Amino acid sequence: MSFVSKDKENNENGWSSEALLELSDTAQEQLRTLERINLTNIHTKCQQELESWHSSATAHLGQIYSQRLADLAQVYTQDVCPDAEKFKQKMIEQLKNRIMPRITKILDDPTPDPEKVDKMQNLLCHIKSECNMMRDRQWIRVQLPDIKSLSIPIKITKTAPSTHLSEHEKDLFEDLSDDESKKEESPVKKKRKTSSIDIMDIFTINPEPIKNYSLDTNSSTLTLSNTHILLHDNHKLTLFDYHRKLNEFQWNDNDYGILVDMCWMSSLSVFVILTIHSVYLYDPIKPQPNLPVKIDAIQPLDRSHVLSSLTPFERDIYINYHKGVHIDQYRVSLTSQWSLEKRYSKSDCCETKDIGVRDVRCDSQYMCLSIMQQDDLKWRLDIMSRDMKRIRRGIPMDAGENQHKFFSMLIPLHDQRWLFVNWYTNKLWMVDQQGKPKLIKESKIRNIRNICIAPNGSYMAIRTEKPTALKLYKLD
Fold first, then answer.
1. Greatest CA separation found in the chain?
2. Spans of biased composition, class Basic and acidic residues (predicted)?
């Protein structure tokens, strides 16, 4: 008789001893079954699946790594080496065939011409500067994804070469001549590659901007990404795209600090905002509520020091203290950890008689410092390497009002040219690839507070006062 039938029978007539024994046996059997249960096979199966995934992922990463090693070798051998060799051979040829024979001639002359000696010295200094720039430039850029975002492809590209390396726009030796020989003809000059609208034409022609936004204050804060514009105006942080205003929120100085500068950091795809004592990150594509996030690891030397400007260089940020008392170099790791790489003193970056640094800026290769001189209060732009070694001393431009008013703005054009706005004299200067400053006398845009160009060179924005406005121009 089955247990079920017995169950029915015993429910009617009472439990028999056989039924109770069978019930006990069933309980014992279930107890033994429970005691024997082991889920090791489930863990083993999942572990095997994970190991299989790991092996596949490792093999795939190995394939990516091998391919990128091949890409790196190709870029180095086919692009970088020929360009570097071309530049090196040109410098060697000029030194051997044009400079050294003339130096020998000067040495043999009992009464050498001082003007020729000075010209020769300046030329040799220029060659030294060009060679230093060649040595220090970042020839190859490897863009590595965050370890947490391995789906992002690894990019290895050759950085855009200097104009004098790739196109030899200006012959450095064309001014060298003597009475016995005619000046040698310069090589054929090639035009620098430009956008369909040249940046200088914006100032001299003053075309109609594609967008013109009225602002409330004469703040100079402004920065561009390839898709967004960020600025600070009337205690508000305002975000635009290239068609309309997207968002704004209150910027309370008591909560965040007094905002002094901002920039776009391409390696992290975020805006970086600088206050007098802190640094914040702002991601323009995060959903609301979207507020700046403070980087606690970035701190000034002490609260008595005021931060004044910043610039990104790949995964580094350079932060300038007021008047260049210090320049801090911070680096962010692939795990988003910030650390102080080096703190440069004023003596590392400036000459003894310099009052100090107003702005620190960078392009794809070099740092640039706007420095006020003590003797005449004139501004100059010094080109620096990433470790703050001076590559080229700037030629002085016009002067500021006094040593306490650092009223100016430095703007990189990302082709080794730089714009400089002297707010005191309301003058706009352009410093070319050879370091020669030119006053843009014919500029029809006045009262410029700041100028910013999108990283891909497609747009330029100008912030002005009187009227206080943001003007947006499309360059291609």
1. 141
2. 165-188
Rounded (to 5) percent helix, strand, coil in the chain? 30, 30, 40
In sequence order, the β-bridge partners of residue 230 are: 223, 239
Residue 122, CB half-sphere, CA atoms under 13 Å: how many?
A: 11
Counting other chains too, the contacts that 203-209 makes at CB distance below 8 Å and 24 or more residues apart are 203/428, 203/440, 203/442, 203/443, 203/444, 203/445, 204/440, 204/442, 204/443, 204/444, 205/444, 206/444, 206/445, 207/473, 209/471, 209/472, 209/473
Question: Hey, where are the domains in the chain?
Answer: 3-37, 41-166, 199-474
CB-based contact 200:206 (threshold 8 Å):
no
Of 2-6, 277-281, 398-402, which gets the smallest average pLDDT?
A: 2-6
Q: Is 383 exposed, middle or buried (0-12, 13-18, 19+ CB in 10 A)?
A: buried
Prior bond of 300 cis (ω within 30°): no
What is the architecture of the domain spanning 199-474?
6 Propeller (2.120)
Query: Which H or E element spans position 124?
Result: helix 114-136
Beta carbons of 154 and 144 less than 8 angstroms apart: yes
Q: What is the pTM of this model?
A: 0.62
Q: Which of 301, 298, 336, 304 is nearest to 317 (CA)?
A: 298
